[in-house]
């Protein structure tokens, strides 16, 4: 990500936070806008052209997306008013705003946990990952497959919208990469730090609370736990937050001991 894009994202996210009446329809419209812009090199070029005036770029938004809600138009106008490092990064930015809008629209729903659960389902089913990630399948068929799968789970409307929208336009990205990216955006919108915890056995509520509290103190922010049951851990925990790994598992200690004995 270029520095221009980082600044553009920060400004666009602030505009989204200030927008009124952000609903799941707003998120849905922004996903459609991202697909529309991404599918047209002419349109994406016009909206990301740094030599064009801000007013002219906003006029393009009004002309192309005039049928969208006021909230969606205001967010899009704020986004195209910024300077992006490339047209592709503008599309990525609009998609991120769509994901964040879904998080805003459903504040009481554990979207991060639902996305993580679906990511684990995909990881455990290579055929499903192939079906969703293949270039051969139609985009509507992929979206409908996701909707059918999530209809039989406890996932809410926001999660279904995010996943079905992303698989329709993966843009050369793997499904699990898309899902992990979405988890980061939802968590960031809610001011959470995401920790992926690998453990051999399920954690009790008390253990989850103690671990979450300890990590929150260490990372100076509220931590959301995504727990993976992994027999290879043997005992203890392996915790990953972004690029940080805290490995207190027995398997890690045994591997370290073997390495020392071999040395």
TrEMBL record:
Transmembrane segments: none
Any single Pfam family the record assigns to this protein: OSCP
Keywords of this entry: ATP synthesis, Cell membrane, CF(1), Hydrogen ion transport, Ion transport, Membrane, Transport
Major subcellular location class: membrane
Protein origin, superkingdom: Bacteria
InterPro entries tied to this protein: ATPase_OSCP/dsu
Mode of membrane association: Peripheral membrane protein
Compartment annotation: Cell membrane; Membrane
Job description of the protein: This protein is part of the stalk that links CF(0) to CF(1). It either transmits conformational changes from CF(0) to CF(1) or is implicated in proton conduction.
HAMAP family: ATP_synth_delta_bact (MF_01416)
PANTHER family: ATP SYNTHASE DELTA CHAIN
Family: Belongs to the ATPase delta chain family.
NCBIfam families, sorted: PRK13430.1
Protein name: ATP synthase subunit delta
Organism: Microbacterium sufflavum
């Amino acid at each position: 990500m270029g520095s221009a894009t980082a600044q553009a994202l920060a400004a666009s996210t602030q505009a989204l936070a200030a927008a009124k009446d952000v609903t799941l329809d707003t998120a849905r419209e922004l996903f459609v806008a991202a697909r529309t812009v991404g599918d047209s090199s002419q349109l994406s070029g016009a909206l990301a052209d740094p030599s064009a005036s801000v007013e002219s770029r906003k006029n393009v938004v009004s002309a192309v997306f005039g049928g969208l809600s006021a909230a969606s138009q205001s967010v899009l106008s704020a986004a195209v008013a910024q300077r992006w490092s490339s047209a592709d990064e503008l599309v990525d930015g609009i998609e991120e705003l769509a994901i964040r809008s879904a998080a805003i629209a459903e504040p009481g729903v554990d979207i991060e946990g639902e996305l993580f659960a679906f990511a684990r389902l995909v990881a455990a089913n290579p055929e499903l990952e192939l079906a969703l990630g293949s270039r051969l399948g139609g985009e509507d068929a992929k979206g409908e497959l996701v909707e059918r799968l999530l209809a039989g789970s406890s996932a809410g409307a926001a999660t279904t919208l995010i996943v079905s929208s992303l698989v329709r336009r993966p843009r050369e990205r793997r499904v699990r990469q898309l899902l992990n990216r979405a988890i980061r955006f939802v968590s960031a919108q809610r001011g959470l730090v995401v920790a992926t915890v690998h453990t051999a056995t399920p954690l009790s509520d008390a253990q989850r609370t103690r671990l979450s509290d300890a990590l929150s103190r260490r990372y100076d922010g509220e931590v959301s736990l995504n727990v993976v049951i992994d027999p290879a851990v043997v005992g203890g925990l392996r915790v990953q937050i972004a690029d940080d790994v805290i490995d207190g598992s027995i398997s890690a200690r045994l591997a370290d001991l073997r390495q020392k004995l071999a040395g």
